[in-house]
C-alpha cells in the first residue's frame, strides 16, 4: 500500500576496448513542477472517484434483495485477521518476485474478473434484455441441468469492453489500461465490501495502519512488490507525461488498498448518515474531506523527503479522527459506535420471536 515510488535512477555502465570500465554515471530524471503537480493531482482525483460513487452505490447495495448483489460483510474477527493474512500474502509475493517467477497468470485472473464491476457503471436507461445459457443432459424425467447461467445485455457489453482492455493490458502493460482495471476494482470493493459497525472499521484500519507502516518503513517488501507486480493492484500516473506524452514511464503510484480500505469505512459512515434519517450527510462529507486531507499530507511528506510513504499512516488517523470529533461535537458518539447494519434485520426477528412467545402464553 505504499503511496508513491521514488523517482527511478538509470545507471549507465560502459567499457572501453581494453575491457576496463570507462563510464559509471548515474542519470536521474527530475520531474518538472508542472508534471509533478499533474501526476499527484490525477492520483487524488482517481482515488476520490471510486470512494465517492462506491459509497453512494453501497447504500443501494445494502438494500438490494438480489442475492447476486448482496454485499460481503466484514466482521470484527475478519478485521482482526486481515492484517495477518495480508502480511503473509505480501511476503509471499515478495518471495515470488525475488525468485523471478512470471506473473502473467495472476494478471489474466485479475483482468477477466473486472466485468462485474464495470456492469454497475451503466445507467438504468440502457436497454437491457435477459438471456439464459442452458445445457442439459438426458431426456424426459432423467434430464439433468449441467449449466444454467443467466446474463443480460449489460453483461455482454462489459464482457466485450473488458476483453478488449484486458488484451490491451496483457500485450502492452499500458498505464491507462492498468488504471481502468484499478478504478473498476476499487469501485467494486467500496460498493460490495461492507463493515458491520464502526468498531469493526476501527479494528481493521488500526491493524492495517501497523501493517502498512511496518512493511514500508521496516522493510523493502512493500515497495519491491508494488514495483514488480505486473497486475492492476495500483493506480499510476506519469510525472513525465508533458515531456513524453502517452509513452511516459516515470510513474507516481497509489495502491488500491489505500483507496478501498478507507473507502469502505467512509461508505459505512454514509450508511450511518442514512440510518439517522436527518436528511444530512455530515459524517460522510467529514470523512471524505478527511481522506482528501490525509492523501494530500501523504503526497506532501513523500515529495519533501523523496521516499515512498505508507499512505495509511496519514489516512487512518484522518478518516477515523475527523468523524469522531464531529460525533463528539454533535453528541452522537455513542450512537455512532452502537450503529449496527444488521440491527434492522434483527429487529423483525426479535418482534416475531416475542410475538410467538406471547401467543404461547395466551394458549
Automatic annotation (TrEMBL):
Q: Which UniProt keywords apply?
A: Endoplasmic reticulum, Hydrolase, Membrane, Transmembrane, Transmembrane helix
**Annotated transmembrane regions:** 37-59, 79-97, 192-217, 251-270, 282-305, 311-329
Q: How does it sit in the membrane?
A: Multi-pass membrane protein
Instruction: Please note every region of biased composition (Basic and acidic residues).
Output: 349-363
Q: Which GO terms describe its biological process?
A: membrane protein proteolysis; signal peptide processing
Q: What is its main location?
A: endoplasmic reticulum
Per UniProt, subcellular location reads as: Endoplasmic reticulum membrane; Membrane
Q: In which domain of life is the source organism classified?
A: Eukaryota
- Annotated region (Disordered) at 340-363
This protein's GO cellular component annotations are: cytoplasmic side of endoplasmic reticulum membrane; lumenal side of endoplasmic reticulum membrane
| Xref: InterPro entries | Peptidase_A22B_SPP (IPR007369), Preselin/SPP (IPR006639)
Q: Which protein family is named in the record?
A: Belongs to the peptidase A22B family.
- What is the protein name stated in its UniProt record? Histocompatibility (minor) 13
Please tell me the species this chain comes from.
Answer: Fundulus heteroclitus
Query: Upper lineage ranks?
Result: Eukaryota, Metazoa, Chordata, Craniata, Vertebrata
Amino acid at each position: 500500500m505504499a503511496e508513491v515510488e521514488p523517482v527511478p535512477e538509470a545507471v549507465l555502465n560502459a567499457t572501453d576496448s581494453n575491457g576496463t570500465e570507462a563510464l559509471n554515471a548515474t542519470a536521474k530524471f527530475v520531474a518538472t513542477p508542472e508534471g509533478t503537480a499533474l501526476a499527484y493531482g490525477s492520483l487524488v482525483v482517481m482515488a476520490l472517484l471510486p470512494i465517492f460513487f462506491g459509497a453512494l452505490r453501497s447504500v443501494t447495495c445494502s438494500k438490494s434483495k438480489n442475492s447476486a448483489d448482496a454485499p460481503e460483510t466484514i466482521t470484527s474477527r475478519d478485521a482482526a485477521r486481515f492484517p495477518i493474512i495480508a502480511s503473509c500474502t505480501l511476503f509471499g509475493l515478495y518471495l515470488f518476485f525475488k525468485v523471478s517467477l512470471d506473473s502473467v497468470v495472476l494478471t489474466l485472473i485479475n483482468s477477466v474478473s473486472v466485468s462485474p464491476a464495470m456492469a454497475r457503471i451503466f445507467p438504468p436507461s440502457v436497454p437491457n434484455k435477459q438471456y439464459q445459457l442452458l445445457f442439459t443432459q438426458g431426456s424426459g424425467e432423467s434430464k439433468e441441468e449441467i449449466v444454467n447461467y443467466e446474463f443480460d445485455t449489460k453483461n455482454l457489453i462489459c464482457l466485450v469492453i473488458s476483453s478488449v482492455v484486458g488484451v490491451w493490458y496483457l500485450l502492452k502493460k499500458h498505464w491507462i489500461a492498468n488504471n481502468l482495471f484499478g478504478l473498476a476494482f476499487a469501485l467494486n470493493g467500496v460498493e460490495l465490501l461492507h463493515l458491520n459497525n464502526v468498531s469493526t472499521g476501527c479494528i481493521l484500519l488500526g491493524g492495517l495502519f501497523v501493517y502498512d507502516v511496518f512493511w514500508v518503513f521496516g522493510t523493502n517488501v512493500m515497495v519491491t512488490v508494488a514495483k514488480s507486480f505486473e497486475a492492476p493492484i495500483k493506480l499510476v500516473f506519469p510525472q513525465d507525461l508533458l515531456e513524453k506524452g502517452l509513452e511516459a514511464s516515470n510513474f507516481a503510484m497509489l495502491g488500491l488498498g489505500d483507496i478501498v480500505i478507507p473507502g469502505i469505512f467512509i461508505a459505512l459512515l454514509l450508511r450511518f448518515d442514512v440510518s439517522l434519517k436527518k436528511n444530512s450527510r455530515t459524517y460522510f462529507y467529514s470523512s471524505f474531506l478527511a481522506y482528501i486531507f490525509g492523501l494530500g499530507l501523504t503526497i506532501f511528506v513523500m515529495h519533501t523527503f523523496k521516499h515512498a510513504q505508507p499512505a495509511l499512516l496519514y489516512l487512518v488517523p484522518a478518516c477515523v479522527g475527523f468523524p469522531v470529533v464531529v460525533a463528539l461535537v454533535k453528541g452522537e458518539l455513542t450512537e455512532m459506535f452502537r450503529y449496527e447494519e444488521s440491527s434492522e434485520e434483527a429487529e423483525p426477528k426479535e418482534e416475531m420471536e416475542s410475538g410467538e412467545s406471547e401467543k404461547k402464553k395466551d394458549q
